[in-house]
Amino acid sequence: MARRSGPTPHPRTGADPDLPPLPALPPRQPTPDGHDAPYAPPHPPPHRPRRRNLDPGVGKVAAPNPEHGLDAGVNGQVRPTSATSRRPKERTPVPHVPSPPRPVAVFDLDGTLVRGDTFTHFTRALLRRSPWRAVAATLCVPILAPLYALHPTRRRAFALLLRLATIGLPPHRFAALATEFAAERASDGNRIPHTVDRARAHLAAGDRVVIATSCAEPLAAAICRELGLAPVDVIASRLTASRTGMRPLPACRGVRKVERIRAAGITGPITHAYTDSSVDLPLLTTAAHRYLIDPSPAHLTRIHTHLGPTYVVLRSPGPSEPGAPPAPPTPPAP
């Protein structure tokens, strides 16, 4: 018997050791009767040939026909080659019609919407809150009284009193005290009803209402909220906090008031202006309709000298003062 040459097969399996082992068979799935199902090797998916386009004319572009002046399209469909057919339709531009600007009504605060100097009364209330502040202010009266009596030095005297009243007072506490004081200041006894009604009428008519005042900004905003004037633009004097108390910046009055209004983005014409003082002559000059609220004889004379009979005087008891200059041809908002 001839001996087999080559590697010796495995004694039990008979497999050739040089060949890779066969893959393991998957486990058999039991049948419903409990017996093992016969092994079925997995079959590969059937071969599906790719679809071919059997129509030779589909997707081909025919050559143009120079005799007819036509351009052949896809599948022999012709289309005209004129320049007018290829142009997109021109849209007629819609003219832009600018909307008319909103009328602007500017109101002063002190003496126009409420009586008296609001910020001065607030400073006095701050001084009376603390005994040592009140004593210090009393000791400074002989020095500050002459300064306050003169117009060029009045602002410095008031700045010293303000620092004495607010030294050691945080800004958030200052704003809270201003809100409390505004609730008392804007009571029925201090407000000027017919001017407040005019401001509300301007708001109801859709006008832009601006409160421009030399009062401090947080106090002026709080008073406007108490008067029910919203939404309005409040342009007031600004304060800066320091270790020695609140320091006032240049007041919002006179020419600076008009500059602050323009700087706030209100560039439209001012249609109505309400004030009680001749200090607002620059504001009255730019307004189309001018109204004086309970002016003093000195202020009335100065305004009449500069503007002539182009204003209306409004007194608290009635709509206008007897014997006042004639009203402008266009009445204000109802």
Automatic annotation (TrEMBL):
It comes from Embleya scabrispora. SUPFAM superfamilies: HAD-like. Residues 18-30, 319-334 have a biased composition (Pro residues). Gene3D superfamilies: HAD superfamily/HAD-like (3.40.50.1000), SG protein - dephosphorylation function (1.20.1440.100). InterPro entries: HAD-like_sf, HAD_sf. This is Haloacid dehalogenase. Residues 1-103, 315-334 are annotated as: Disordered.
